[in-house]
Amino acid sequence: MLAASTFAAPAQAQVQRSPYGPPITLDQAKRVVAAAEAEARKNNWTVSIAVVDSGCNLVLLHRIDNSNLGGIAVSQDKANSACLYRASTRGAEQALAQGGLNIRLLALRGMVPLEAGIPIVVNGQQIGSIGVSGVQSNEDGLIAQAGADALK
Prior knowledge:
Organism: Phreatobacter stygius
Order of helices and strands: HHEEHHEEH
CATH superfamily: Haem-degrading domain
InterPro entries: GlcG_carb_metab_protein, PduO/GlcC-like, PduO/GlcC-like_sf
Protein name: Heme-binding protein
Radius of gyration: 14 Å
Number of strands: 4
Shape: globular
Pfam families: HbpS-like
CATH class: Alpha Beta
Strand order of the largest sheet: 2-1-4-3
C-alpha cells in the first residue's frame, strides 16, 4: 500500500488503477509491438519495445535495427514498472521532478521514473504493459502509447 500511495503524484491521486486481468497473448503482444514500431518508424526513431503480461513476465522484446543496446534492458524495466504499480511511469517521472518527499520513489523496488512504461488495458483489466526506450523520454512515451492503444 505504501508503494501505491507513494507513487501517486498530487495531480494523479484520483487515478483509478485497473485490476490485473488474464495475461496478454503472444498474438496481442505482436499487435501492440507492430503499432509501436509503426509510430517509431514514422518518425525515424530506433528503439527497443518490450511487452510483459499481467504477471510482469516478458512476452515479446523487439529491437529496431541500430537502436542502442541499453534500450533493451530499459524497455523491459519500464514495462515491468508499469506492470508492478499498475500505472504509467510518466506519473512517477513527474512526481520525482517535483522533488521533496517524492524522492522516495527511488526506493521502490522495480520503479522506473522515466516516461514510456504504460499498462495495456482491455475490458477494464490490465493484461500487460509496454515499455519503450531509445529516444527522448517523451518520444518513447508516444511510441508506447501507440502500442498500448492498439488493443482498444
